[in-house]
Automatic annotation (TrEMBL):
Any Pfam family: GPP34
Lineage: Bacteria, Bacillati, Actinomycetota, Actinomycetes, Actinomycetales
Keywords: Golgi apparatus, Lipid-binding, Membrane
Name of the protein in its database record: Golgi phosphoprotein 3 (GPP34)
Organism: Actinomyces denticolens
Subcellular location: Golgi apparatus membrane
The organism's place on the tree of life at top rank: Bacteria
Amino acid sequence: MLISEQLFLILSGNSGGSGDWAQRGIYGLRGAVLADLLLAGRLDLTPGRDPLIRVIDDAPTNNPVLDDALSHLPTDESIRISHAIGRGECSLKDTIAAHAAAEAAGSDSAPEGGPAPERGAGIVDRLIAVLKGECPATAADQVLLSILKGLGLGRVVLPGERTGLGWSGLYQRVKEITDTNAPGEPLRTMTDTLAALTIIVATVDDDR
């Protein structure tokens, strides 16, 4: 499952957690799909807190979420990741929702006549286990934790009564996980950038 799809499921299961949840969420989804494209070998990016991203392979991926995101990125020039996140396509959330619904409809994991399993809750459980050191962090975990940290949504999705961490402890733990485990400079740059989404969002909003 794509990182952007996992984030969509997390946000869908916590839609009442914040007054500006929807606005923050779309920035997070745009950042997540850029991470998906990076891990799929479709993007290159420079070092820095707001790196330049460049499409290095725009061939179809056969995944509607990735193909939709690729179609909205320039192929002949590099752009700042803040531009891609702050002024990205408006259709991304709908594309992810439609793809997730199609996958759920085609899954045989749900009991006959019953609802599909709550996949978003399972993803949150995994992230909490990562925070507690009960399982190693995957690349997807690192990106998801960075986005939740960067958007200031970590305390809502990962409450202290479950993690055993206060506000500062949670964000310090996320930084520790991404600093220690991020495999390779491009992903490290991406997680650093996504952990600073609050700054990016503030800059974008000021420019509107």
